[in-house]
Amino acid sequence: MTVTSSEHELVDVLDAAGTVVGTAPRWQVRRDNLLHRSVFVAVVNDAAELLVHRRADWKDVWPGHWDLAFGGVVDHGEAWEAAAMRELAEEAGIAAELVYLGEGRYEDAVVREIARVYLARHDGPVSFHDGEVTAVEWVPLAAMRAWLEGREVCPDSRDLVLPRLDAP
Fold first, then answer.
1. Which of 39, 34, 29 minimizes the C-alpha distance to 7?
2. Is there a contact between 138 and 51 (Cβ–Cβ < 8 Å)?
3. 36, 44, 130, 154: which has the fewest Cβ within 10 Å?
4. Mean pLDDT, rounded, for 144-167
5. What's the farthest any 2 CA atoms get from each other in the chain?
């Protein structure tokens, strides 16, 4: 595994109750599947369409999968909303007001996270300067469940974001 500069960033490690109990470099959080904080920002336009994107093949988790929200790991000591705004700007070039939609927990063999989900209303433009995004689509919220069928989608965004969007 090639360790990038972001892999050395410190991340808060949580206990089962969600309390910060220490820090670890991002690479160790991934390797040991440590419980950590993350954020998701769903981008919806005025036509009630969700901006979905395909993750780059080099991503450390779920490479090449479709994602229903922009976001990522919260840095050590970083505020939730600040992390959400940072991730949205880095990944999509968007600066928008955020609406808090809720908090949830996701755990599997790859990721263990407590996440906060936000909504950003934005009609464009979007830009993808950091290379994390390889394709995008605007999907009507009413057609989201059908769109998901047959696609590899990040399970954490599917489980944590989709229910908060009240998609049928």
1. 29
2. yes
3. 130
4. 93
5. 43
d(CA 168, CA 165): 9
40 - beta bridge partners?
71, 117
Peptide bond into 125 cis (omega under 30): yes
Whole-model pTM: value is: 0.92
Name residue 119's beta-bridge partners: 42, 99
Positive or negative: CA dihedral 145, 126, 53, 77: negative
- For 87-135, how does the pLDDT look when each residue is reduced to its tens digit (9 = 90+)? 999 999 999 999 999 999 999 999 999 999 999 999 988 888 778 899 9
> How high is the pLDDT of residue 1?
34
Contacts of 150 (CB under 8 A, 6+ apart): none
Phi-psi sector, 166: left (phi>0), alpha (psi -120 to 50), beta? left
Is the pLDDT reported for residue 3 higher than 70?
Answer: no
149 CB contacts (<8 Å, ≥6 apart)?
Answer: none
